[in-house]
Every structure is written in C-alpha cells, then in structure tokens.
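Question (not urgent): is this output format expected?
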Amino acid sequence: MNDTEKTLPTVSQNRLLTAVDFLRLSEVPPEVEWFANLTNRCTRRAYENAIRDFMAFTGIQKPDEFRTVTRAHVIAWRDDLTQRGLNGTTTRHRLSALSSLFDYLCEKNAVIHNPVKGVKRPKHDSLEGRTPALGDHQARKLLEAPDGDSLRTLRDKAILATLLYHALRREELCKLKVKDFKHERRGVPHLKIAGKGGKTRYVPLHPAAGGLIHDYLERAGHCSDDTGALFRPVSHNTKSNGGKGITPDGVYKLVRAYSGKLGFEIGAHSLRATAATNALDHQADIAKVQEWLGHANIATTRIYDHRKTRPEDSPTFKVSY
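Got this back:
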C-alpha cells in the first residue's frame, strides 16, 4: 500500500450509490445543480416559470446552451416581456431569476460573466405594495366569521388569529409544529417560526391567538404530538394522517371563503399586510416590524408603512389662519 492509499478512510463495501449512479451524478450540468439547490417551494416555482419563459423565447433546448447567452439576448427578452404587457414587478422578478442562474454558473466557472448584470430593469411601479390590507373593522369581522364550536370552526378561528396577530406567511403557518407553539422566552409564550431562507425567528404569542389555539388543540386531541403539524386538515385530524399539516393552498382557500362571505374576497397574504400595516399605524418601530416579518431588507417593510400618506397627517391640516 502506497502513502496515498494509507491516508484514505476505510469504506464499507455496501455503497449507497452504484458505480453508474456515481458517474451519472458527477456529470450533472451546473444549470441543473442550480435548480436542484432551490429548496423553497414558492421560489422554485417562480424561478422555473421564469427560466422556462426565457428558454422558450431564445429556443434553448439543452442546459449547456445557456453558456452562449449574451446581454443582447437578455435585453431582447426583457423588451418582449414588456411588450406582452407584464408589469414591472413581474419583469424584475424574472430577470432576477435568470441572474441567479448565471451567478451560480459564474461561481462554477461555467461562464466568465453574468449577462444579466447591467441590463436596465423596470422601475418599481409604486412605493406601496399591491397586496390590499384590511381596515380594523374588517379584520375584527374576519376574526368573528367562523361561527359555531365544531372542530373546523375552532381550527379556522385559530388560523385566522395566528395570521392576523403574527403576520405569518401561509407557508410559515403550515410548517408550524405543535412544539413550536410551546416555546417560552423570559416567561412569555412564543411561536417558533421557520421562515424563508432557512431562517428561524421567535415571535411573542398574542394572548387572543394563544387562547384560540389552545381551544383547537383541546378539541383536536393532538396536543401531545409535538413533532406533528399544529394545524391539520379536519377530514383526517388524527394521528393516522402521520401528523401532516394543512397545505398553503388550503390556507388560501380558507381565507378566500371567509372573506368572500363578508364581501371583500382576499388572499392569505393580505392578512400579513394587514398585521404589518396595523402595527406600523400604531407606532411600532419599523426595525422591530422588519424583524417580526422576517424581511431581509427594511425597504420591503416600508411597503407597509402608510403613515406618510395618510390624509390626516398632511401639512394641509396643519395650516391655520
């Protein structure tokens, strides 16, 4: 045995990858690697739509054909997106997806530069978000919308309260485990939230939401199933479902159904916008709100800050003769 062989660790004969699988994986193009590394479901779907659109526009058929893309191709695609009537936000997101791919290819030395860099992107359509936020009276009506004391009603009340009092994304709500509801920090109950990008944050549990979650768990009977989902489909809310949670689509439909009956049909993200706007309107520190929402950039949080645009705060009403 030579010196090199002596330094190698002993390997079991029962290898998990066959020789064929090992060779196949070593030949995976970096373009495919990049997509496989997208773990967030929503990001993966959005980026896939963007890359497919670019491939259809340019006629790209194989992964390695991305390495011949130039800035001129990207500019032509951007102009085509605009001509198709896509708004500025959608166009920027699609360019960001393509830029992410080329950043990865640069890192892997598959290309020498990112052709998306330097391509002018559409300006922001507005400093305000497009997601509508509810007024206080509408939020109160929505919290009271589930009527009765059935298991479904108790669950829906708890879900709406959790969204409206903690500004969670629907995916974050669906990821909540029973044990995530049982955290305490300095004697105060907290929710442990698995946010975007694998980031975890702890948010104090609002007493109103906490009481509703307790009522739901008591009726549902899975309070001791710590590793199971906190919110589950009512049709199989027992241990037989393996502790699986309600889906993001289920949360979306739930919010649409209750809000629709009240005459203002909205999506689940509007409840996040409502909570953020309400907190800022009641003088919450914007840096704290940024942390609360799990935003990487405070500019995103400012979208929900309408204090500078409220008519009652205009200098017009400060003038006195």
